[in-house]
TrEMBL record:
Residues 4-141 form the Nudix hydrolase domain. Belongs to the Nudix hydrolase family. GO terms for cellular component: cytosol. InterPro entries: Nudix_hydrolase, NUDIX_hydrolase-like_dom_sf, NUDIX_hydrolase_CS, NUDIX_hydrolase_dom. It comes from Friedmanniomyces endolithicus. This is Nudix hydrolase domain-containing protein. It holds the Pfam family NUDIX. It comes from the Eukaryota. GO terms for biological process: dGTP catabolic process. One of its GO terms (molecular function) is 8-oxo-7,8-dihydrodeoxyguanosine triphosphate pyrophosphatase activity. Keywords: Hydrolase.
Length: 168
């Protein structure tokens, strides 16, 4: 049975602004099991997008984030389950450890996620060809808003080009 649309929040959690790596995990135990997704979840009543993003990232990965910002939104209907989601995509930066090292995501909800890893947009784009299915809202983002992904990639590409020029 079809239900009212729900609001989900998904977060591109970046290591830093230059390298373009963000957290991705493989879902399990709920709709979208076996697909790759960003940390995120449902928006609670009265919660801002930024609050929801920081809460969900902390609950799922143990990571503290800063500089949480709105990116875009997508509209996804899960035909097989009758669910309809408006997904708010956010970006955030990982808060470094006290020694300056990058904090690593932890699998805090083993019933919902097989594990987290760092990924780039180039790797994300290759996943479907490698028989790695993307969670429907993330797939919708890639289809509905390809310009957004390209804009997020730009700082990492610029840094890589600077590194290559510096080595020459």
């Amino acid at each position: 049975m079809a239900s009212e649309p729900r609001v989900g929040v998904a977060v591109f959690v970046f290591q830093n602004t230059q390298d373009g790596h963000f957290v991705v995990g493989r879902r399990k135990g709920s709709h979208g099991a076996g697909t790759y997704a960003l940390p995120g979840g449902h928006l609670d009543f009265g919660e801002s997008f930024e609050q929801c993003a920081a809460r969900e990232v902390k609950e799922e990965t143990g990571l503290d984030v800063q500089d949480v910002r709105f990116l875009t939104a997508t509209n996804t209907v899960f035909g097989d389950t009758g669910k309809h989601y408006v997904t708010i995509f956010m970006t955030a930066m990982v808060v470094a450890n006290l020694d300056g090292s990058v904090a690593e995501p932890q699998r805090l909800e083993p019933d919902k996620c097989e594990g987290w890893s760092w990924c780039t947009f180039a790797e994300l784009r290759k996943m479907p060809a490698q028989n790695k299915k993307l969670f429907a809202p993330l797939h919708s983002l890639m289809e509905q808003r390809p310009d957004v992904c390209t804009s997020l990639e730009a700082p990492a590409k610029a840094e890589a080009n600077r590194d290559l020029a510096h080595r020459s």
